[in-house]
Design a protein that fits this description.
single chain; globular
């Protein structure tokens, strides 16, 4: 069990490094490219990588018995609207300001989880969100 927890932490660190570097790459790319071109490139790269992972059977894609309408609704709000607003936000402001605004995303996720999913957050989770918002941008 401890090995799985360590593996989860390692993957989370890698995910955060990738996410942070995409902010920098997107910002520098938007200096020379149109916002919608960058958005199209991000979706194309995501589709290619996910398709390759599915073909190599690294991820399993199975929609049998699933409510496709809810999946499509979630897919519209999370990646589509999120990336559109993120790209326009990064384009309209500097990278550090965009990073500070995006650092608040976990706090809003925590609040929406409580309201819509009736989930509770543990004290360590709340402390980590606090650290991310108030200490990491410094």
């Amino acid at each position: 069990m401890e090995k799985e927890v360590a593996y989860a932490y390692l993957l989370n660190i890698i995910r955060n490094c990738i996410y942070g570097s995409t902010m920098l790459f997107t910002s520098s790319l938007l200096e020379n490219t149109d916002v919608l071109d960058v958005l199209a490139l991000r979706f194309l790269m995501s589709a290619v990588v996910f398709t390759l992972l599915a073909l190599c059977k690294v991820v399993r894609v199975d929609y049998k018995g699933k409510n496709i309408k809810n999946i499509m609704l979630a897919a519209f709000f999370e990646p589509v609207l999120y990336f559109i607003f993120e790209n326009f936000g990064i384009h309209s402001t500097n990278t550090s300001t965009a990073g500070l605004i995006l650092a608040t995303a976990p706090a809003f996720t925590m609040m929406f989880e409580k309201v819509f999913l009736h989930e509770t957050t543990t004290w360590p989770q709340k402390m980590m969100i606090f650290l991310r918002i108030f200490l990491l941008p410094c």
